[in-house]
Amino acid sequence: MVGLDAIPRGAVSAEDLAELMRAFNAASAELGRTHEALRGEVSRLKGELHEANRRLERSRRLAALGEMAAGIAHEVRNPLAAIALHAEMLRADLGESEQGQAAGKILRAARDLDAVVGDVLRFARELAPCVGWVEAVEPARRAIGTCDAMVSGAGVEVRLVSQRCNERVEIDAGLVAQALANLIRNAVEAIVEEGSAGSGLVEVCVSMEGPWVLYEVSDNGPGLPMGAVERMFNPFYTTRQTGCGLGLAMVQRIVDAHGGHVDAGRSEAGGARFVLALPARSAMTTEDVA
């Protein structure tokens, strides 16, 4: 490019001016592209910051709620144990009489409440993932095995769909299996409540996408209730007749503990679809680790 200082006075030709204009236009275009790229990067970083702040605020709320729930659960557990003990003594004394059967109902109710208290205490307990190298598909296999008895009794098919099974990821396989089992149980219960257990299908898909390992649980049940997506991961929120609404909240805690995220929506079959995206860290194949 010809600089102005290098051109003698009065010797600027039309070609020189044209070259200067081309250089100016090229520099302006490059600056424009750089500006747009910077704007896009700033927008992306703002979005990530907003999402990080949202997750941090949610974690703080869950921690505060967990502490309060744990305190209440501890206070409830002692008198509940006393109720169960005396109900069992009454049932033993009264035998199979009408009063004895009533005492048995009290005992069963007390045990059901104790199970709820146990769920609350487990939810309130701090989660510290114990990560290790496992095949990405392993948590899905464990979850399906955990739910086998329930699934068989309900007459619902649970199908594992796995891609690149030999991928190994660094996660807490036990916690991830627990999260997937909660989703499978929810799907089976929704299908049974709808009355379509005979043709019910739950698919668990495991795949890799860039730096993420994806666990997808979808079904052909009734789908998610209107407006439920915004609240379904809140503790104690449930649309079911039974349960205390901690299953999905626990799923969210497990995913958060791994630094991942959860997406919920409608499946291709019209039912519910949940996708757990967890950082795969340095994913390796079985041969790489061996």
Write structural notes for this entry.
- This protein folds into three domains: 4-51; 65-124; 133-289, Heat Shock Protein 90.
- By secondary structure, the chain is α+β, with helices and mostly antiparallel strands.
- It is built from seven helices and eight strands.
- The model is unreliable at 282-290 (pLDDT under 50).
- It is 56% helix and 17% strand.
- The chain has helices at 14-94, 98-124, 138-146, 148-154, 173-194, 247-257, 286-289, and strands at 132-135, 157-162, 167-171, 201-209, 212-219, 261-266, 272-279, 284-285.
- The strands form two sheets. It has a five-stranded mixed β-sheet. A three-stranded antiparallel β-sheet has the order 1-3-8.
